[in-house]
Structures are given as C-alpha cells and as structure tokens.
Task: structure prediction
Amino acid sequence: MRPPNTVIYPPEIPTPTDTRVQWTRHLGKPLGEAEALNLRLLSAGLTNDQIARRRGVSEKTVKAQLQSARAKLGARNAPHAVALWLREEATA
Result:
C-alpha cells in the first residue's frame, strides 16, 4: 500500500499523437488529444491541478476537457470515464 498523498507519475508524458483514440463504440465521437491525455494522467493518479501544471494550462481548462471527455464517453463521473477509457485502451 502506498503512503497517503503519494503521487505516482507515469514514466513519461505521452505525446498527443500517442493518446488519440477513436471512440466509435460509445457516442461515435472521438476523444480529442487533450481529453485523452488528461484521462491518461488522471488514471495515473494526478489531480486536476497537477495535470494543469504539468501541461502548462489552467485547471479550468483541464476540468472543461475532462467534462467533455465524460460527455463523449457517456460517463457518470471522472472515475467512470477513466474506467471506460482504460477498458477501450485494453481492447484497442
């Protein structure tokens, strides 16, 4: 078990082209590069603020992109969006 407040960072931040995923099984709308990157970093345990700092954008931008990703995936919340995204990544 990891200590509280420990952040696990991915080995490297993927380039946007590495994170582009077509989501044809859901609403037929592809996730944008930033949306997929945010989900990848969120799945690694980063907070919205940490994602924003790491990407050099505002936290408001990250929240808006995650909200857009949730809508495209038909997810109820951020953890559900990450779960759907990870499932798609595993089958892609």
